[in-house]
Amino acid sequence: MEYPNLKKPVKQAKLSDIILVQLEAMIIEGSLKPGQKLMPERELAKLFDVSRPSLREAIQKLETKNLVIRRQGGGTYVCDNILSGLSDPLFNLLANNNEAQFDLLEFRLGIEGMSAYYAAMRGTKADFTEIERKHQAIGNAQLDSEQQNDFRAEAQAVFDFYLAICSASHNAIILHLARSMSILLIDNIEKNLTVLAKKPDIFAKITDYRTRLLEAIISGKPQRAWGASHQHLAFIEEVLLKLNQEHSRMERSMRRLHL
Fold it and tell me: Whole-model pTM?
């Protein structure tokens, strides 16, 4: 006799699949970063409280998905090209286009404002400590920039500060989108700093705006954090536009002199 309404027993998930899901979640949330080396199998197995064969099987499945790569005698690493689909040749064109630099600034107005809002809302004490540490690193990088007249290190420090805010937002899309555009965004920040260096007094104001942003986030005020982020980038955009207009006027004047 058949019993059509009788449910079939639920198939229990394999332990390696459960570990796989947990490791994938760590990659998504940013606990495991592109290029980062995984802990040794023994330590990972202890962390997950599983056998090493089950862990090894889970890592093999990650490798099949091109999420990790094994290096002979060097351990297992999260693939650093996970987001290579966003590293389009178009990025190179955008990086060298003056108009696109303002488009990027507008993009940053949106993405950094959102990340600041959610960081203030969801950030943990550990998140805030990391944001403060990255903020302090900007000051150290600025000293090097002044001495060497090279703004790359400062641009990297500024980006790392904003990436820490993205991480504190606990929004995986925001975090990985920012990471995928790292080169483009660092280039944009460096170009902006190079131009703004023509107006040394501007740097003090930018530092003040960034400090307000930091304080709004760690005090847990989402609306104020969003506003501080917007004011900071809107100020930079306004200064850059004015400098750009001045440069255009100078070019026109020089052309007239050669007529």
Answer: 0.72
